[in-house]
Design brief:
By secondary structure, this protein is of the alpha/beta class. The chain has one domain: Ribonuclease H-like superfamily/Ribonuclease H (Nucleotidyltransferase, domain 5, 2-Layer Sandwich). 38% of the residues lie in helices and 19% in strands. It has a five-stranded mixed sheet with strand order 3-2-1-4-5, sandwiched between helices. Helix 4 crosses helix 5. The longest helix has 14 residues. It is globular, with a radius of gyration of 18 Å.
Length: 188
């Protein structure tokens, strides 16, 4: 937090992971009377995982897919974030996922001082703006979908994430001073 206050060009990102399944999830949908929509159900469990980080200033999404969610995959995503925002300090807000912990993560963060992390309180996914990004993308792409293969579904999902700008009221509603208090309360 001190880094963000001392360097006004700090990029503040909210990070989270999600899983994308070929099996369509359902949501309500309007249809002409007598024309009940049909959602194809895939009997398999083909899936992939996504790492996403929302830039809280401009709504830009950094996203990466991965077959697994592990510390190694997390480090690959952190490297992507560092390449996306070269030479800028980064404050990354994330949860306490098991793939965010351990010696590999600690060593990586120690070696990249311009990347600082702060954890959301446990059990509070509603505080993470990235959760709203996942909800938006699922509603636009993966609910009620008609894809028969995972790769085209993943491409459509990632295209949606990369081309849309997601508004976030966190910085508007909670300024740097409020985030600093949050950090002090968590003793970061």
């Amino acid at each position: 937090m001190d880094m963000a206050q001392d360097a006004p060009d700090t990029v503040i990102l909210a990070e989270d992971e999600a899983s994308l399944y070929l099996q369509a999830t359902q949501q309500r949908e309007w249809a002409p009377r007598g024309q009940t929509p049909t959602v194809r159900v895939d009997t398999g469990r083909a899936n992939t995982h996504l790492y996403g980080a929302l830039n809280l200033h401009n709504g830009h999404e950094v996203v990466m897919n991965s077959p697994v969610m592990t510390a190694v995959a997390t480090i690959l995503f952190l490297q992507l974030i560092l390449r996306t925002y070269p030479d800028r300090p980064i404050l990354l807000l994330w949860d306490r996922g098991p793939w965010h912990k351990g010696a590999l993560i600690k060593d990586f963060l120690a070696a990249h001082a311009r990347l600082q992390v702060m954890c959301f309180p446990p059990g509070c996914p509603d505080l993470n703006p990235q959760e709203h990004v996942w909800k938006d993308a699922r509603g636009a792409v993966s609910h009620n979908h008609a894809f028969t293969k995972l790769d085209p579904l993943l491409d459509a999902f990632m295209t949606h994430l990369r081309t849309k700008r997601f508004t976030c009221s966190l910085l508007r509603n909670m300024n740097f001073e409020a985030l600093a208090c949050f950090a002090k309360a968590l003793r970061i």
